[in-house]
Amino acid sequence: MKPKLLLYLLIFAFTACHQVDPPQPYGALPSAAQMAWHEMEYFSLVCYGLNTYTEEEWAYGDVDPGLFNPSDLNTDQWAQTASEAEMKGLILVAKHHDGFCLWPSQYTDYSVKATPWKNGAGDVLGDLAKSCKKYGLKLGVYLSPWDRNHAEYGRPEYVNYYYRQLEELLTSYGDIFEFWIDGANGGTGYYGGANERRNIDAKNYYGYDSIFSIVEKYQPNAVIFSDIGPGTRWVGNEDGIGGETNWNTISPGDKVPGVSDSEYVKKLSTGEEGGAKWIPAEVNTTLLWPKAWYYHTGQPVRSLGNLMDLYYTSVGRGSPLNLGLAIAPSGLIREADRRALLKFGEQVKREFESNLLEQARIKADNVRNSKFDTGLIADKNNETYWATSDGVNSATLEFDFGKPTVFNRLLLQEYIALGQRVDSFSLEIEKDGKFVEIAHGTTIGYKRLLRFDEVSTQKARLKLSTKAPCLTLSNAGIYHAPALVPDPLPEVDLQGNLSFASPDGISIYYALGEDPDSADFKKYTTPLAIPEGGKLHCFAQDDKTGFRTEGIMHEFGVARKNWKVISVDGQNSKESQLAIDNDSKSFLTGSEQKSEHPHEIVIDMARPTNISAFSYLARQDGEKEGIIYEYEFLCSADGSNWKLMASGTFSNIENNPNRRIVRFDEKVTARYLKMRSLSDVRQSGKASWAEVEVFAD
Asked: What is the pTM of this model?
């Protein structure tokens, strides 16, 4: 055989045995717009409007637009803050459920046209579009389908109005990266003065297919958000928590926004392996804590430690973080909010500043070929990736740092342009001549981040597995993140005794009262009694470095040691005390013999008490049945003569079931309390209470 022919045969044989083609796509794939959206990782839903001035989450639709008159509205300040905080986009709530529009819509007078701001010539959305372009941010919009102001809501005329407004938004303000829509679908409202409840056919009334078609026509690169997509799905909660298992694929079938059964809602955080469509989860929550989308006087902001927790349960689980930003009445981001955002952005950069794998030797037990070698996972390029040969669906990557190396973070990214594949992974370190597991997980997707206690080793190895024909990995990183001082976690028992968990080397300081700036902070040493409750301000400090957390505020109710629930819908049982047992995991339900509203509980506080507010905590088990929507709260000195102290609705409580504190217009001295449920979020006729409290100040 001639030497040249032999060489050709050897080359052919080598090529046949060593695949040179890239992996074939696997399952549903992201569009170009979805890929760009994944890479944004962090943006904000900007909440501003008449709700800001009435301090409501869901306004009724009857608020005078004359209230909207900011003294210093500056969208450049919003965009500059977002950019400096490492955000990549801002989504403006252009119209919320109250129907008030932050742009001068030609189709309604209930907008900035009717306000004193700029003599009715202003355009918040227009200003923000310019500011986003100036600071390199992408712009998104939210247009509520429910409109509590519009006289024709619930009729065909309103749907046409909504379509025209949507076209107006999508054609007047440049490129839109995300269109936000939810399943808000009717209830009580002003409706042009009708002041009534209007229910709709939630599946068919809005014509979601037409809405999506309008978006796709005018903004083909926009990703559409709702609980069923089609561009990105709601994660199923407003807590900022994505599923530890998080598939970007899901099969929504013929579902429409807001009309999903409970089983489908449970899938929103996890997705479905092998789902029919690429509809990744978006994790949303609020910067304010307790959770509030709109401005409320004195509302605290999340601590740095809490924001970092959110980062790891959103971006760290493969989903962008959409952090709600409440603009203050002045038209600016509050300084406390701005400071928190900037510190958050700085901390994320610190934690992932230096990838230790860039200096490590990396080898794998399988490499597809040199075009997909292991060195590509540490090259800071999302377009390159390591891959295994077809038929290899489990593999091990070994990292040799050359010397003992300390680390506490792991970053992984698949090459999702060809589909999501990994269903499990683990990280091991060499210790005493053996490899031991220190961390593990299920899915990776666009990005997976794991935190673990500091370890020291010269060698580590990563194990991956998939049901797909082969594996891909675009990026991997190992980091040594600086330690954060943990937030102080106060607890108050039924007797009103306040205590903190005190980690070694950390001191906790606290003060009681309204104003933390003038408070006398004391070092916590032993539990203290606060039988009348009140506001507590606290921070933690590292004894060695002096680094301290931001101040955190908690509000506690009157001690409930001697309280008794004396009746539930006119009956009593051992379970009645579940509404006041100081255990958020338990809850009381209304009488099974009473299958419709109203439901009510009556509480004896054992002594006359001066009170100025009450709170309701909905069930915390993830189920929705019986969560109270419309309520009344009454007080009595003798248990016979009752005075109505508060009534209204717990807006958005179905998706945001946190503790709701309702202030009275006046203080009252009472011994007996009565809370009525007039309706529940699912209109099931049921009612439930996890905790009821009252406040002295």
From this structure: 0.93
